[in-house]
Amino acid sequence: MGLNLQNYELEGSLLEIHEYPDPVLTEIAKEVKSFGPELVDLCKNMLYTMYQAPGIGLAAPQIGLSQRIFVLDVDYERNEVVEGSDEYILENFNPMMFINPVIKDKTGTIKYKEGCLSVPGVYEEVNRSKDITVEYQDTNGDQHSINADGLLSICIQHENDHLDGVVFLERLSTLKRNFFKKKFK
Ligand code: QAP
Ligand code: CO
Fold first, then answer.
1. What angle do CA 87, 53, 8 make, to 5 degrees?
2. Range list of H helices, the chain
3. Whose alpha carbon is nearest atom 16 of ligand 1?
4. Per-residue pLDDT tens for 139-176?
5. Residue minimizing CA distance to atom 10 of ligand 1
6. Exposure check for the chain: N or C terminus, fewer CB within 10 A?
7. 29-38 per-position pLDDT tens digit
8. Which residues of 35-66 are buried (b: 16+ CB within 10 A; e: fewer)?
9. Phi, psi at residue 18, to the nearest 5°?
10. How far is ligand 1, taken at its centre, from the CA of residue 170, in Å?
C-alpha cells in the first residue's frame, strides 16, 4: 500500500492497533537500545498506520510493542484523491519520531478534547501542561531537545503517557473513567 504525500510515496505496512483494555497498553515500555535501519522501518510503518487511521499520534505499545517510541504529526491534512476512494493525498505533513523521550519542564495548564486510536469513539477533555521541554533521541540515536506548546505539547504528553502504561481514560474524573472502563470491559 502507499500514501501519496504531494508526489512523495510513503510506502509502509499497516500495523494492527491494539485497543483498550489490551494489557500491552498498561505496561511500562522498555528503553530503545538498538538504533538503525530496523528502527527507521518501524517508525515509517507506525507513521503509515497513523496517517491511514487517520490519527495525529501513535505510540509503540499501541501496535503491541512495549518500547519507548512514538510518532506524531499535528500539521497534516488528508484528502481523498477522488471522493469515496481509499487513496489519499497528504498536505503540510510534518512527521516526527521520538525515541526514549523524557519530558523535562512543564508549565501552565491547557484543556483539550482528546481521543485515542486505542480507545475508538471516545473524545473527552483532559488537562495537560501547556508548555513543555522534551529530550529525545532520533532513529540514529542522536540526542535532541525541543520546546513545545499547543497541540504538539498535548500530543507529546498523550503519547508519552502510553510509554508509561497510561491511557487518557486514567486522566478523566473518577465518574467518567469508571463509565468508560466498564463500557470497554
Ligand atoms: C492523541 O489521538 C491525541 O476515537 C492522538 O475513532 C489526541 O490520533 C493527542 C482517532 C488529541 C492530542 C490531542 C480516535 C481516530 C485518533 C478515534 C488520535 C477514532 C479515530 C486519535
Ligand atoms: Co493514545
1. 45
2. 37-52, 150-163, 174-184
3. 55
4. 999 999 999 999 999 999 999 999 999 999 999 999 99
5. 117
6. C
7. 999 999 999 9
8. beeebeebbbbbbbbbbbeebbbbbbbbbebe
9. -80, 130
10. 15
Contact between 94 and 103 under an 8 Å Cβ cutoff? The reply is no
> Measured in angstroms, how far is the CA atom of residue 53 from the centroid of ligand 1?
9
Question: CA 153, 34, 45 angle in degrees (round to 5)?
Answer: 60
* Sheet-wide strand order for 8-11: 8-11, 2-5, 88-91, 77-80
* Total length of the chain: 185
pLDDT value of residue 113: 98
Q: Give the whole-angstrom CA distance, residue 83 versus residue 115.
A: 26
The values of phi and psi at residue 158, to 5°, are -60, -45
Cell of 131: 508548555
The CB of 167 under 6 Å from ligand 1? The reply is: no
Residues 6 or more apart whose CB falls under 8 angstroms from that of 50 comprise 56, 57, 58, 71, 72, 73, 117
Give just the sign of the alpha carbon dihedral 170, 173, 175, 180.
Answer: negative
Which cell goes with 3? 500514501
Determine the Cα–Cα distance for residues 76 and 90; give it in Å rounded to an integer: 6
C-alpha of residue 173 to centroid of ligand 1, in Å = 19
- Would you give the DSSP letter of residue 70? E
3-state secondary structure of 10: strand
